[in-house]
Amino acid sequence: MSDPFHQRLHHVAAAGLSGDTAQTTGMRRVEAISGKTVGSRNLWMGQTHVAARTNSGNHHHGESETAIYVVSGNPSFVFSDPDHGEIRIDTKPGDYIYVPPWVPHREENPDPDTEAVVVISRTTQEAIVVNVPQLEWVDPSTRDR
């Protein structure tokens, strides 16, 4: 559309969320807002579900900055600090987490009964997910040397 002030809004109902996105073991991502679903250019948004007593695999989101809002459950977010080893951030509904680009992390849901659900927003239109074997950060420019 040539007039940027008269474009249409897009509604993505909960029943319309798509599981056709990058995945990591131990969690289920569903996509709501993306280039595929609404034609966004610079934004990806969706949900992640982590079952009770489940940990995700270690992963990072490449160049994407990631914002996370905890909807339900009490998920924990784990990353590695070179000086202090593994660091765990325990959350509750209403909390937010910021994940900088390239930072390996994992989600954990220690609750024995309740699924954890979070809303995710990323600064790239694609859901970049790079599954990695460990939490220690490796400079991506040196990986293929």
UniProtKB/TrEMBL annotation:
Cupin type-2 domain segment(s): 50-118
Protein name from the UniProt record: RmlC-like cupin family protein
A family per Pfam: Cupin_2
Gene3D superfamilies tied to this protein: Jelly Rolls
Organismal lineage: Bacteria, Bacillati, Actinomycetota, Actinomycetes, Micromonosporales
Organism: Catenuloplanes nepalensis
